[in-house]
Amino acid sequence: MKARAVIPPVLAVLLAAVSICCSEKKEPGSRAQYPQRIISLETSATETLCMLGLADRIVGISSYSAVIDAVKDRTVVGKGFGDINVETIVSLKPDLIICWKGQDEKVLSQRGYRLFLFESAGFDRVISMIAGLGEATGKKDEALALVRDMERRKKAVTDRVAGAPRPPVYFEDRKPLTSRAKGTLAHDLIGLAGGANILGDSPVAYPRVNSEYVITARPEIIILQNEAVSPEEIVKRPGWQNIPAVKNGRIHVHERWHSNYSPRCIEGLESYARWIHPELF
Amino acid sequence: MDALTAITRTRKKGIIILALSLAGAALAALNIGWVSIPFMDTVRALAGLDRAIAPETGIIITDVRLPRILLDMAVGAGLAVSGCAMQAIFRNPMASPFVTGISSGGAFGAALVIILGLPAALTGPSAFAFALATAFFVYGLARSDRGVPVETLLLAGIAVSFFFSAMVAFMQYMADEKQLREIILWTMGRLWEADWPRVALALPVVAGGSVILMFFSRELNLMIISERAALGMGVETGKVRAAVLVLVSLITGAAVSVSGVIGFVGLIVPHVMRMTIGPEHRYLLPASALGGALFLVIADTLARTVMSPVELPVGIITSLCGVPFFLFLLKNKKGMTGFSYGT
Amino acid sequence: MELKTRGLAFSYGAKEILHGLDLDFRPGKISGIIGPNGSGKTTLLHCLNGLLRARGEIILNGEPLLSMSRRQIARAMGLVSQKEEIHFPFSVLEVLLMGRYPRLAFSQGPGRDDYTCVYEVASLMGINHLLDRRVDELSGGEFQKVMISRALAQEPSILLLDEPTLHLDLKHQLEILGRIRSITDVTGLTVIMVSHDLVLAGRYCDDVIVLKAGNVHVSGPADDVLSPSMIRDVYGIDAQVSHHSGTSTLIIGSNGPEKKTNCKENPRS
Fold this sequence. Notes:
The structure holds 3 protein chains of 3 kinds. By secondary structure, chain A is an alpha/beta fold. Chain A has 11 helices and 9 strands. The radius of gyration of chain A is 22 Å and the shape is globular. Chain C is an alpha/beta fold.
C-alpha cells in the first residue's frame, strides 16, 4: 500500500480531533457538567480555585502550588514549566487542565484535554482571567463577587492617591538587574498605587537594565521580588548608596502573592500604596 | 647588530596599534553610557578631581564604569592569552581555555554552593576551586608514563565537561526557583556585577599569570610547530605542558569566578591575532592579551549601550560582531591559522 | 665529540626493530646510514637523539645518553627530521633563533651572541637573503636549508640528518650536501645522515653503515662498503661502482626491463 494513501484518512481523523478540542475550548460553560477533576499547573490559578471553593476538585498541581495549604497533599505533576509528567496527568483523568500559555499547552491539547490558559498580563487582564476561570468551572457568580471586591479595593487606593505627586519607583524582578515594564502586573500595580515606574516605557516587558540608569533615575522607592534579590545586596552595589531609596531605607520586599494573577494581588496593590505614599495611609 | 627585520617591525607595530586602540577604547567606554558625561568631566573624575563635577557623575565614572571596564579588560585578556597558550601546547586550533573542563567544573562548584544553601560569598571561591580541580583531574586522567598525549587530554576534557554539565543540569532540576535562577546566572556572562572587589580578585591573577605565561613564549613557538621539533630542541614538553596548564587554569578560574562563562573570546581572539600579528609567541601572547581586552571592552560597551538603558547579554554581542569579522579574516587569509592536518 | 652504541636494541611493542647494534661514529666525519625501506634507519636516528628510548647503551662523550636531559642532548646534537613542516607564518630569522633555545636560560630572549651565531650559520648555508621571508612561503630546497641551519644554530657537535635531500632537485641536493661537507671539514662536526641515495652517500660520506632488517649488514669506509656485492646482497640489484677523483660513483643496473639504449641512472624511490 502506498504511504500516500494513508494520509487523507489520518488527516481527517486529526482534523476531527482538533475541531472537537477547539469547540470544547471555546464554549466551556455550555456543558451541562462542570469539571470535577482539575489539574492546575499555575500557582495563581490554584489560589483562585481555592478562593472559589473548588479545592476539593483539584486532583493535581505543579510543585510550586504546594505552598497553598488546602492543596499541598495533591499529586504533583511537574514544576509547571515544560517538564510535566504526562503519564501522571493521564492517570489522574482530568477534565480540565489550567496551564501557562505556550508552556505544555501543545502537548496537552494534542491529547485532547480541555485547557484553560493563563498568560502574562496586566491588572485588567488579570481581572478578566479570574472571571473566565469562574465561568469555566461553573462558579461564575462567586468569581464576579471576587472581581467586584477587587475593583472596590482598587478604587479605594486610586481615590486616595489621586492628585498626589508620583515618586519614581524601581522594581527589581531578578538578577541581573531585571525589572518590569508596561504590560506587566507589577508595572500596573506601581501606577495604580501612585508611583512612577522608572522603566515603564521600556521596549521589552522584562528589561535588563543598566546600573547607571537606576542611579541617575534616583528612585525614591525600590521594590524587590521576594527572595530573588536581598536588600543587603542592593545596598552594597557600587554607586547605589546615593539613591534616595537606599539612603532613606525605602527598600521593600514584595510578598509572593503580590505578583500572583489571583484576587490576592489586590493585597499587593495596597502594600505598594503604603510603601509609595506612607503619608496617605 | 640590529635585529629588526621587516617582519619583526610589522609585529611590533601591530602591538603598538593594539595598545593604543585599547587605551582609546577604554577611555571612550568610560565616557559612553546611559548618563552622558562631558569628556573633560570623565578625565577629572579619573584624576580624582571630582569636587569640580556633580557627585553622581564621579560615582558613575569611578564606581560603576571603571571597575566594569577593568573587569572587561582582565577577563578578555585572561581568556585570550589562555586560549593562545592552550592552542600552542595542544597544537590544536579548537583548544580554548575551557577545553579541560574548567568552565563546567566552575559552574558545578558554584551550583553546589547554591544548592547546599551555603553563604553566597563562597560561590566564587568554590567555582575557582572546582575549576582548578577539574583541570588537574583531566590532566591526571590523560597522563601516563609516556607523557600526556594531546588527543587523550582533549577527549578526557570533553568527557569530564559533559559529566559536570549533566551534574549541573541535575542540580538545576532539583533546585527551587530561586536556586535555579542563581545557577542559570552562573552559566551566563556576569560582567554587570562588576565592582572593585571583583576587579581586585581577577586583575592581579590575570596580569601575573599572563606575564609568567609570556616567559614560555619560546617553548610555545617550538611546541606549536611539532612535538618532535620541541623535543629535539631540548624543550621538556611534558613539564612545559603541565606548567602552562596550571597557569591557564588559574587565569581562567579567576576570570570565570568573577564573570561567569564568556565563550568565544578565548577561542577566536588568538586566531585573529595569529593571522594578523603572526605566530611568534613573544608578540602573539601580548597581542592576544591586548586583543582580548579590546574585544571585550568594545563588546561589553555595546552590550550596555545599544538598547540603553536596557542591557544585552554580552555573549550576544561577542558572537554577533565577532563571528562575521572572524569569518571574513578566515576567508581572506586562508590557511593563515597555520594548523595543518594529515602527515 | 664521540658517539657510540653498544647493544642498541629497540622494539615497537613486541616487534623488535633494531637487534643490538654496536656502532662507532668517527668525530669530524660524515657517516651515512643506508639500507632498504623498513631496515630501521629512521628508528636508529631517533634512538640516537633519545626521542625513542632504546635498550642497550648509547654513549655520548663517555656519558650515557639516556641519563641526559633534553636540553643537554640538544646542546650536543641537532636533528633535522624527515617530515618537518611549518605552516605558521614565522619569519626565517625567527625559526633560526628557535635553534638557540638550548643555549638560552629559561625566559631569556636571544641576545647579540645569538644573532651573531644565527647570521653566521645563515651565511654558511647560503640563506642570508631569506632571513626576512615567511618560512611557510619558501620552496622545498630553501626550507630544507633553513631546517639544517636551525639545527646548526644549536651549535651541536653532532648533526643528525634524516634524508636531507628527499624530494629536492639535483641542484639543491648537491648544494646542500656540498655545504654540509665543507662545514664538516672546517668545523669538525660529526654528521650522521640517513639516506636512500647510494650515489650521494658514495660522493659525500666518509663512512657508511648498511642496515638490513635491524642488523648492521656491513659498515666501514664508504669506498669499501659500497660494492656491487653489497648492493646485490642488500637490495637485490646488479650495479657497477667506478671511482672518479677519489670518490665512489655508482652505476646501477637493473634486473627488470628497461629502455634499450642506455642504462638508467639513479632510480630514486
